[in-house]
Amino acid sequence: MSAQESSVANAVATVSLAQLRAEFAIRLAKLYGAEVPAYNTLVDVSKDVNEDFISRHGADAERLGSIDRVTAERHGAIRVGSATELSQVARVFGGFGMYPVGFYDLRDASKSSVPVVSTAFRPTDRDELAKNPFRVFTSMLAHDDRRFFDAETEKRLEEFVGARELFGEELLALADKSAAQGGLSESDAERYLDLATASFELSEEPIDHDWYYHLEAISSVASDIGGVPATHINHLTPRVLDIDDLYRRMSERGIEMIDEIQGPPDWEGPDVLLRQTSFRALDEKRLFRHADGEVREGQLRVRFGEVEQRGIALTTKGRDLYDRLVAEVDRRRREEQPEWTRVEVALDVWRESLPDNETELALQDLGFFTFHRGDQAAPEAGEYTLRELVESGAVAIEPIVYEDFLPRSAAGIFQSNLTGEGSRDDEQLGTPYDIERLSEVIGVQIADPTALYAAQRQASIDELEQALNIRIITNEQS
């Protein structure tokens, strides 16, 4: 782009990507609250939980995010049916400054039939996340996976999905324009927000009854993607600082929650990664077109309200340990403590294996942190380890919030809200998907979340070295 073109773009783009993203999140919340009123209750309870947590814990409560950010924070979830739809939705989100991060294969993350691969669209820049961290977990139906779909069903899925239009040309053009300019004019922004929000509104068009239930016998997730005329918000998720308190309060209000909180247990040590739960999918009235051509009212249970509590991002070493702990929990429940809940077993395993404080999580290279000037005198010029600097008080640590998702937890939420386990034939070969293949589908390289966290940590170390005129030996170098 020439200097003249850049000047014109900056003059036109009066509504920034962050402003567009924040308004988009607000409009989707209003839309979803109107469609699923229990979501409004979830938001109200989340707000009460956060305010009470802040009053009890003071400044420490905001260590993983300011109360303003946490209160405003949301993630959504949608599902699409083809590579074309996924590449188009990537363009829509790109216009809001949201880019694909992480690859999640839910097909083997649950005992139920969940035939999707996923990524999440979110800001990748730390400052942009601070302005508005809206993210959308986006799943694509693996319609060519023979474990779930025979050749005839695959062909019908391709025809059905190929015949619908989720995102119109005007919306896509405005999205591309916003991405190129870094925002839009006020008039374009209003039109873009209207079109983008409407594209995720629940369709009132009748559903083909026989086709929908043919897919539901395979997977409720498949029918919700490939058996309906349009996509929609599957759930919208507020963030809380105490998910156990929220679970209790929602249950006390008579709202049926899923059986347990997904992810790490509640314990006295640092919160890591992500904890999630939801209220169960509710009956929703929908119109069905039957084989005789008659349209009759029926009910579906596909949408629910999820809530999350975010913790500290883990390094590769930390994630390896986390995966081993999850496997150990499964083993003990299966072989030693079948009468215990997963959470009860996990609490013991966590206490045995994870440091119970942030400092050791950082210094053992298990969690991602940034490093900054501490309240003690700076050392003389020379070479120091991170441990020496942190333990002397010359350097302070700040946790990096985990901005992404866990396949097993996502599948657990999906499974808890399915109408049945569906069917799958594990004698067949699954279609191979990984981060590179899904990147090709989207047309944009999916970012590795671990690399993003590592870059953030390294930037803080580089700044310290320059400011203090020292060389810092990191965990990897020691």
TrEMBL record:
- Note the CDD domains from the entry: VOC_YdcJ_like (cd16348)
Q: EC number(s) of the enzyme?
A: 1.13.11.93
Please name the Pfam families in this protein's record: HGLS
* Protein name, entry field: 2-oxoadipate dioxygenase/decarboxylase
Instruction: Kindly list the cofactors needed.
Output: Fe(2+)
| Annotated family | Belongs to the 2-oxoadipate dioxygenase/decarboxylase family.
Which top EC class is named for this enzyme in its record? oxidoreductase
| Zinc is among the record's keywords | no
